[in-house]
C-alpha cells in the first residue's frame, strides 16, 4: 500500500481542550492530557483500510473497529481512544453532556483525528451524512469499557484513569507530533 500524504506537522491545525469534570464525567480533570483534534490530518480521499494500515504501521495504537459514534454520552476508563474519520461528517460533543457549559462541540469531517483521553465523555449529536470512524486503542490494550456517567463509576473507574500511562508516541506521526509534545510537557 502506498504511503499516505499526511498534512505536514508544520501546517497541521491542532486544537486542544481541557474539559473540567461535569456531573459524573471526569473529562480531563484526572490527568494533564487534553482532548486533541487534528483537523484534516489525512487527505479527504482516505479510505478506512488506508487509515488502519497507517495506524498499524506507526504502531502506537491498534485499529479495533469501524463504526459511527454512539449517541449516548460515554467515556472509557481503561484506555485513551484515537478516532479517525473515514467518511461523512458529524457534530460531536465532548464533555459528557449536551448541557455541560464547558463542553466542546466539533464538526468532524473526513480526515480529522480526535485523541480522546480516558475519562472524556463523548457522543454523536448529529450525523450529517454517512459518518464513519476508525476506533483505535493503545497497542497491547486488552479491552476498553464503556462508562455512562453513573455515580457508582466514580469509585473504581476514576482511580483507574489516574493510573493510566499516556500514549507512547503520536498515533498519526510517530516519534513527533502533538501527543509526543504533550507527553513531554511541551504544552
From TrEMBL:
Q: Where is the Cupin type-1 domain?
A: 74-124
Q: Which organism is it from?
A: Kwoniella pini CBS 10737
InterPro entries registered for this protein in UniProt: Cupin_1 (IPR006045), RmlC-like_jellyroll (IPR014710), RmlC_Cupin_sf (IPR011051), UCP019307_cupin (IPR014500), YjiB-like (IPR047121)
Q: What's the protein called, per UniProt?
A: Cupin type-1 domain-containing protein
Gene3D superfamilies per UniProt:
Jelly Rolls
One Pfam family in the UniProt entry: Cupin_1
The record's SUPFAM superfamilies line, in alphabetical order, gives: RmlC-like cupins
Q: Where is the signal peptide?
A: none
Amino acid at each position: 500500500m502506498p504511503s499516505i500524504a499526511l498534512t505536514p506537522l508544520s501546517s497541521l491545525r491542532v486544537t486542544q481542550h481541557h474539559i473540567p469534570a461535569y456531573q459524573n464525567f471526569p473529562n480531563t480533570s484526572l490527568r494533564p492530557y487534553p482532548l486533541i483534534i487534528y483537523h484534516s490530518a489525512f487527505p479527504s480521499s482516505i479510505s478506512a483500510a488506508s487509515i488502519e494500515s497507517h495506524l498499524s504501521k506507526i504502531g502506537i495504537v491498534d485499529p479495533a473497529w469501524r463504526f459511527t459514534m454512539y449517541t449516548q454520552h460515554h467515556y472509557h476508563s481503561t484506555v485513551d481512544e484515537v478516532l479517525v474519520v473515514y467518511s461523512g461528517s458529524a457534530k460531536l460533543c465532548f464533555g459528557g453532556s449536551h448541557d455541560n457549559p464547558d463542553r466542546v462541540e466539533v464538526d468532524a469531517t473526513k480526515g480529522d483525528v480526535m485523541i480522546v483521553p480516558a475519562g472524556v465523555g463523548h457522543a454523536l449529536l448529529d450525523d450529517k451524512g454517512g459518518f464513519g470512524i476508525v476506533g483505535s486503542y493503545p497497542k497491547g490494550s486488552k479491552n476498553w469499557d464503556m462508562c455512562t456517567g453513573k455515580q457508582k463509576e466514580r469509585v473504581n473507574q476514576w482511580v483507574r484513569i489516574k493510573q493510566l500511562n499516556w500514549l507512547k508516541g503520536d498515533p498519526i506521526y510517530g516519534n513527533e507530533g502533538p501527543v509526543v509534545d504533550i507527553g513531554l510537557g511541551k504544552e
